[in-house]
Amino acid sequence: MDTFELMAKKMNEMAPEERMKQIESLKAMCTCPGCPSYTICAKKARESLYCAMGKSFMCISEEKGCICPTCPVAKNLGLKNKFFCTRGAEKAQRYEHTLWGSTMV
Ligand code: SF4
Ligand code: SF4
User: Fold this and answer.
1) Atom of ligand 2 nearest to the CA of 65
2) Most buried among 15, 31, 37, 69, by the most CB within 10 A?
3) What are the pLDDT digits (tens) for 57-97?
4) Is 26 among the domain residues?
5) pTM, to two decimals
6) Which is the closest atom of ligand 1 to the Cα of 52?
7) What's the first-to-final CA gap in the chain, in angstroms?
8) 89 is a domain residue
């Protein structure tokens, strides 16, 4: 198991309140609002933590760069992907890559 798989397992085993606390603390660390792809719509909708929560809900469609690799959450969770707001959460992207054997740049 790599870091991400271990962290996902740990979060799955947490009580719902504990998991919510963990999510809130990760959201506080998310650097998406400083990213060129982040939009006013996303800000108004208070979107963040796409790596765990999944794609933006109709607020981000254009990829203008991704600063996820420099985010502390990426290191903490052992993320291997990026552009989570447009391409889906780490879990979803890993699954897709397994199915299609592709690596997006
Ligand atoms: S890795 Fe990206 S999506 Fe995840 S918290 Fe950091 S900036 Fe946000
Ligand atoms: S997921 Fe990546 S591309 Fe999307 S807003 Fe966050 S840092 Fe930018």
Assistant:
1) 3
2) 37
3) 999 999 999 999 999 999 999 999 999 999 999 999 999 98
4) yes
5) 0.93
6) 4
7) 24
8) yes
